[in-house]
Amino acid sequence: MSAETPTAVANAGPLAVVCGGGSLPVEVARAAQRQGRRVVLLALRGSADPHFVAAFPHHWVGLGQFGHACRHARAEGCRDIVMIGSLVRPHVRDLRLDFFTLRMLPRVIRAFQSGDDHLLSSIAKMFEEQGFRVLGAHEVAPEILMPHGALGSRQPSEIDRRDIQRGFALLRATGPFDVGQAVIVSDNRVLAIEAADGTDLMLERLAELRGQGRVQARQGGGVLVKAPKPMQDRRIDLPSVGPRTVEGVARAGLAGIAVAAGSAIVAEPGRIAAVADRAHVFVVGVAADGPPS
Known about the structure:
This protein is an alpha/beta fold and 293 residues long. It has helices at 6-10, 24-34, 50-53, 66-75, 99-102, 105-112, 116-129, 137-140, 158-174, 198-211, 243-251, 269-279, and strands at residues 15-19, 39-44, 58-61, 80-84, 133-135, 149-150, 182-186, 189-193, 223-226, 240-241, 256-260, 265-266, 282-286. It folds into two domains: 6-142, Rossmann fold (3-Layer(aba) Sandwich); 145-286, Cytidine Deaminase, domain 2. Strands 6-13-11-9-7-8 form a six-stranded mixed beta sheet, sandwiched between helices. The longest helix has 17 residues, at 158-174.
């Protein structure tokens, strides 16, 4: 993590945002603009939302066009780069590589043959080797980090608190295997572990299993727990929650969401609180090594 102050970062010149899907890239871009920085989006084809992208200076790039991305960033005068947004990981054979990336094909193949952490860290290292500085989204927009305490009016019960502790313990144990950043625990029973499906599909699958009678866990009990993996590069892959996550938790019949405070990104906290209260679920930020206060 950079040791620079927000003021120093604000005065560092134009910022390039490698923009995946969802609303988080836009929130980061707007936060940087509020600090006085010019922002240019490097929008990933097939992932970034054209409606969001259109509101900023931007260039569309393919996933295999690292050379194009670097060239656009340099032409815009950007030294700093942020990588944020959702992305469906393609197979390396489906990438349309530009000439610059093609010259690094063995390295690209090795990166894609590893877990998500290694892949993203490899991309960040490639940017750094080209003279760019890779920043975490939270360094540019610290307000997007989940605070301690609840968003909304509801709080976890004692049973929920025990499930939260078990969830964090499980994430610490599975983190070295680069499995995922989320688990679902209900009454001390692990119902799901996030893998390649991602949080939203994991919640959808749990809702389906409940509907089929294949999960007998208590309705209105259980917690989605999210935390970064141990030793991961937190500049490029912090877990996140948003209003859609809350809606998925409600459909899955869970009591709420617990995320690592200060180590997870929260999209649209005001909307999250409103959606959580309407759905009668809690959303709470806690220390990952202990129960909620």
